[in-house]
Amino acid sequence: AVVEQLAKEIGDVRREAVLLRNLGVLHAATDDNARAREFYTRARHAYRATNDRRGEAATMMSLAVTSVALNDSTTALELYHEALATLRELGDRRQERTTLHNMGVAYDILGDTPRAIDYYNQALALARGLGDRRAEASTLSALGLLVRRLGDPRKAAEYLEHAVRALDELKFPLEHGRALSYLGRTYQTLAEYDAAFAAYQRALPLNRQAGDRQDQASTLKSMGSAYTETGELTKARVNLDEARRLYQEIGDANGEADVLAVSARASMREGNLAVALQHIDNALALVESVRASIH
Asked: Disulfide check for 27: which of 32, 219, 261, 273 has CB 3.0–4.6 Å away?
C-alpha cells in the first residue's frame, strides 16, 4: 500500500503499473491468487492509461494464469484471446507461443479437447519456428498426456519420444525427468515393459538431480506398479516403500494412498490377502483424512 501511494503521489502512472504488477506476482507466488488478481487488474488499467500495450498484454496473461488457478478457465480464455490479438499486432512471437500453449491448457481443463489440440499445435509450430526446443518439448509433453487420456497411448508415446529427444539436447532435469516418467507410464499402458523400465530408470536420476521429491515419488510409484504387473514383486516393494516414504515426508496423503493401493495389488499377487486388506484400509483412512481437512 505504501509503494502504491508513493507512485500515485509522484504522478507516475507507468511506475504505478509496474509496481502493481509486481505486487500481483508476489501474491501469486504465495498462492494468494484472489489478491494477486486484484493487483493485476489494477495494473492492467494503469498500463492501458499509459497506452502501454505490451505491458497490458503481459498483465492480461498473468491475470489469465491466476484465473485458471482460481478455477475460472472461462475468464482466463477471454483474457488470453484479448492478449493474443495484441501480441500478434506487436509481432511478439515468443509471448504469442506462450499464450497459445496456455490456451491449450485452459481449453483442456474445460474439456474442449479439439480446441485444446488446435492451440497446442499452433504453439508447437511457433516453438519450432523460433527454434525454442524447451518450449517445443513442453507442448509435445502436453499433447502426449492429452492424447493418452483420450485412449491413444501409441500416439502419446510418439509425442513424448519427440519431447524427450528435444530435452536430451538441453540441461533442464526437471522437465526432462517428467517427460521420461510420462513416457514410461505410456509404455506401461501399452504393456511394453522393457521400454517403460528404460524410461523410468532414466527419469529417476533426473528427478533426484532436480530435487523434486514429488516427481521422485511419482516415478518410484510407477516403477512399483510396473514391477507388480510383471510379477517382480520384490522390486515392486522396494520402489513402493521408497515412494511411500517420500510422500510421507512431503505430506502428500493422496500420493501415499495411491502407493498403498498399488501395494495392495502386489500383496494380492503374493496371495497375502490380509496384508492387502490392511493396505486398502490404510489408503481409505488417508483419503478420508484429506476429505475431512477440506471440509
From this structure: 32
DSSP 1: -
pLDDT the model gives residue 13: 87
Contact 20, 63 (CB under 8 A): no
75 phi/psi in degrees, rounded to 5 = -65, -40
- Which residues neighbour 49 within 8 Å (Cβ) at sequence distance 6 or greater? 13, 17
Residue 131: left if φ>0, alpha if ψ -120 to 50, beta else—which one?
Answer: left
Residue 20 near residue 46, CB atoms below 8 Å: yes
DSSP state of 91: T
- Band the pLDDT of 291: cuts 50, 70, 90: confident
List % helix, strand, coil for the chain (3-state, nearest 5).
Answer: 85, 0, 15
Amino acid 160: pLDDT: 98
Q: Look at phi and psi of residue 272 and say left if phi exceeds 0, alpha if psi is from -120 to 50, else beta.
A: beta
CA distance linking residue 120 with residue 105, whole number of Å: 8
Q: HEC profile for 232-253?
A: CHHHHHHHHHHHHHHHHHHCCH
Model pTM score: 0.89
